[in-house]
Amino acid sequence: MTRTIAVVSQKGGVGKTSLVQNVGAELASLGKRVLLIDFDPQSNLTLGWGLDPNADRPTIYQAMLNPPGALSSVVNLRPNLDLIPANLDLAGAELAFINAIDRNNKLRKVLQHLLGYNFILIDGPPSLGFFTVNALAAVNEALIPLQVQAYAYKALDQLLAIIGQVREINPELWMLGVALTMYDRRNALTGTVEDMARQRLGESVFKTVIPVNVRIAEAPLDGTSVGEYEATSKGAVAYVQLAQEVMERGRAE
Amino acid sequence: MTRTIAVVSQKGGVGKTSLVQNVGAELASLGKRVLLIDFDPQSNLTLGWGLDPNADRPTIYQAMLNPPGALSSVVNLRPNLDLIPANLDLAGAELAFINAIDRNNKLRKVLQHLLGYNFILIDGPPSLGFFTVNALAAVNEALIPLQVQAYAYKALDQLLAIIGQVREINPELWMLGVALTMYDRRNALTGTVEDMARQRLGESVFKTVIPVNVRIAEAPLDGTSVGEYEATSKGAVAYVQLAQEVMERGRAE
Ligand SMILES: Nc1ncnc2c1ncn2[C@@H]1O[C@H](COP(=O)(O)OP(=O)(O)OP(=O)(O)O)[C@@H](O)[C@H]1O
Ligand SMILES: Nc1ncnc2c1ncn2[C@@H]1O[C@H](COP(=O)(O)OP(=O)(O)OP(=O)(O)O)[C@@H](O)[C@H]1O
Ligand SMILES: [Mg+2]
Ligand SMILES: [Mg+2]
């Protein structure tokens, strides 16, 4: 069975793209067949793998317009690792599908034509509207990167409420967990937010935390994951652990 | 004359809200009459001043629905410093005004009823659509916080293109400048992005840079600016300098 995971948060800059790129890369290097989907018109995930979003190739938007042809939007990145890129045209999708009865299931219909993967990870934009709802409606699992800061923590209520609402159209949707990101043991704010999160969310907070590590921010300039960029860095080691924890937490089938 | 400034970037988490809160607070403490407008449905600026977005009070959305009554949405924060708060209802504005002929000028009409300020600063959401266009259409100056990282730098092209397009409906719109944020002298990435930005944008990059400083992230938990939270911190000192540079760079009247 394919595990499908939407990585979502309406708070900007919390590490959604970094998580999808790096957890995806680690799962692939563990032998899992992985597909990443860039579902943000800003197309940072596409950029992060060194691709030009404006190159003349089909993107996730074309796949949504013609789901049976979705495979032609797939780009192979590494062994076991594929990507469906995005570009700014995707921003037009919200308006294009505004009157479609199945507007919330456009992405779900694409996934139905993408078979043979062990994992599909979707990178969402920093908003709560059409794209986040589509991403959550398309998958079985939601993963929330939680930057250990005040605004990101305060955004949780709203996000959990949206996940609850999407369950009405996608009863399979399950909360895989919350991963603490940009964790800096040296400052008190990290501890404050971590305590609040673990108290409120308990076991659904991953044990693995992703530390602040400049290598994570440098790797996308090279068009690669932090594991490839510098495998011994704190960031790379943490993402290996997080990928393993994602595998362990998989729903008992 | 009132200087009106939109603080915009579609990249998430680059310091838009922090810049509006802290530059606004410093301008007010220099004796300028300042109005901040929270124009992000996530209402982080409202939260950052310790207010509950869900309290029963009019917000920027009510002001857009009835511009002549805009003053009733104004909340006084400190001497010389007012705020028009936001809440999640604002997310409904995009759809509510979708067929309005003046849809891009809804915020501009609000500002026409808010007189007597020396500065009006607008905090935008991390997207390029309705809200960012409205914010840019409403003001004379655009200020872009540029986090010194790869994705934020790559977002510049698109943002500058949008500012150019909005000039068609708002010929007064002028580029106040680009302020480097989350600057960390210890890592090479900061220097790489700074060099790229200064080479490409020259003088429009502010001399003042905003360093990574945890006090900036802690202050909103106390509902206050970094200057009030810890005036001697690196973050507070930098925001005093940035506010002064904003004042100096004002268009020659
Ligand atoms: N653990 C980390 N340590 C240091 N830098 C990080 C870390 N995680 C992400 N970054 C950097 O911080 C910035 C924000 O991360 P990223 O772009 O992945 O967040 P996002 O949630 O996808 O943002 P957006 O809301 O704009 O889509 C990027 O420049 C990224 O390289
Ligand atoms: N110079 C800084 N040093 C350390 N932390 C900072 C700095 N500036 C902002 N922050 C923190 O980083 C996070 C992102 O900043 P902020 O929320 O202001 O960005 P934004 O661009 O408004 O985000 P969004 O795109 O979600 O609206 C916040 O938690 C904030 O407190
Ligand atoms: Mg992203
Ligand atoms: Mg903000």
Q: Could you characterize what this model shows?
A:
The structure is a homodimer of 253-residue chains. With 253 residues, the first copy, chain A, is an alpha/beta fold. Helix content of chain A is 39%, strand content 15%. Chain A has a seven-stranded mixed beta sheet, with helices on both faces. In chain A, 53% of the residues are buried. The mean pLDDT of chain A is 97. Chain A binds chain B through residues 10-14, 17, 41-42, 44, 47-48, 88, 91, 125-129, 147, 149-151, 154-155, 158, 184, 187-189, 192, 214, 217-218, 220-221, and chain B through 10-14, 17, 41-42, 44, 47-48, 88, 91, 125-129, 147, 149-151, 154-155, 158, 184, 187-189, 192, 214, 217-218, 220-221. The complex binds adenosine-5'-triphosphate (2 copies) and magnesium ion (2 copies). The site of one magnesium ion has 5 residues of chain B, from helix 1.
Helices and strands of chain A: which structural class? alpha/beta
Mean pLDDT of chain A: 97
Total beta strand runs of chain A? 7
Ligand inventory reads: adenosine-5'-triphosphate, magnesium ion
Proportion of β residues of chain A? 15-25%
Radius of gyration of chain A: 17 Å
Q: Ends of chain A: how far apart?
A: 9 Å
Order of helical and strand elements of chain A: EHEHHEEHHEHEHHEHHHH
Looking at how many chains there are and whether they match, the oligomeric state comes to homodimer
> Sheet with the most strands of chain A?
7 strands, mixed
Count of separate DSSP helical elements of chain A:
12
Instruction: Catalogue the unreliable spans of chain A.
Output: none
- Binned, the helix content of chain A reads 25-40%
